[in-house]
Amino acid sequence: MTDLHNPKLDAHPASNAEKDPKDWVSGDEPMTGAQASYLTTLAEESGDPAPPNDLTKAEASQHIDELKEQLGRN
């Protein structure tokens, strides 16, 4: 069997997830349904008001990170 090198496997697995949302190419697009659902769940768990429906993907991601930190889910 040949040992093939895959550079993608050498990369840090969370490297994409750590990119600043304001630098995302699609960051200005409306948040996804999954983001909206997760935000609603996190807001309910934290006692925060539901987030507005007109967030961008980047704004939703930042809000998710803030709520996760507030709930101790880093």
Summarize the structure.
This protein has 74 residues and is mostly helical.
Largest beta-sheet characterization = none
Helix count, DSSP H or I runs of 4 or more residues:
3
Query: Which blocks of ≥5 consecutive residues have pLDDT under 50?
Result: none
Rg is 16 Å
Shape assignment: globular
* Mean pLDDT across all amino acids: 79
**Secondary structure category:** mainly alpha
Range of helix content:
40-55%
Oligomer: single chain
Secondary-structure element order, N to C: HHH
The total strand number stands at 0
Q: How would you describe what is shown here?
A:
With 74 residues, the protein is mostly helical. The chain has helices at residues 7-10, 33-46, 57-70. Helix 2 (33-46) runs parallel beside helix 3. It is globular and about 40 Å long. 11% of the residues are buried. The mean pLDDT is 79.
List keywords for this structure.
mainly alpha; 0% strand; 74 residues
What's the arrangement of secondary structure elements?
Layout: H1 7-10, H2 33-46, H3 57-70
Helix pairs in contact: 2-3
